[in-house]
Amino acid sequence: MSLLQHLNKDFESRVRLGIMSVLVVNTWVDFLEMKEHLQVTDGNLASHINALEQKKYIEVKKEFVGKKTKTSYKATKVGREAFEKHINALEKLLRG
Amino acid sequence: MIQDVKDDLQHIRKMMEQSSRFISLSGLSGVVAGVIALAGAYAAWYIFKQHHINYFNDYRGGSTPGLVSQLVLLAIVVLVAAIGLGVLITVNKTQKQGLKIWTSTTKKLLIALFVPLALGGLFCLAALYHGLFEIIAPLMLLVYGLALINAGKYTFSDIQNLGYCEALLGIIAMCWPVYGLVFWAVGFGLLHIIYGLLMYKKYR
Asked: Is B134:B180 a contact under the CB 8 Å cutoff?
């Protein structure tokens, strides 16, 4: 099935799909907000974020708010395009 | 396989919606605000009567002592009651849905709504100060409509349509300023109730 080739392996996990979904409609979302949206544990979220960052799908920004660090994320152009392709592939599969 | 794809797409849509729009706005709060507005409009008419002014026959922007301050007081009571109950109902719905109320989306929604409202409110006060009573009802409708159109980005798009209705009604009201109070009651009362019921049915 050639259609399956277009499905991106990087987006197989629900958590990663969620992260990308949130980031295509919002710029700079911080870790806590992301956790609230996705309802996952810190460790789980962090590992998926790491994977997406390594693929250069998301950009990471760390800053100090008072004494705490705040980490925020943004989708890169590459990430947006990859995600869009993935959604298109999903939709094609659905239409058969 | 197909079910997985469907679930994936649904998950994507849900995450996009939930993270960018405030989806706990309750239709009931619209209905309640509408009822309060209708009561307020009736009370305003009654205050005019107490001052021996028949709003629809004699009222041409004149004023007797105490009239304006009574009307302003009434307006504040109506505003506080409508917003207060609306917030209460919406917070309640959010908790039932198991969502957080104070998110960045909520903040964006409130800023988009209240900044134009506050600026318009100040403009209304200036008009009041100069005794331009007949433009206040149309102006309130217009400002409220524009604020809703602006805030609609961050919640159900129906709110934007309500905004267009309110703004249009404001313009029509400005053509017949004598009926300002009636248009006000239609805009803040009737439209709120109709929209509230529609949204209640749609998003329960």
From this structure: yes
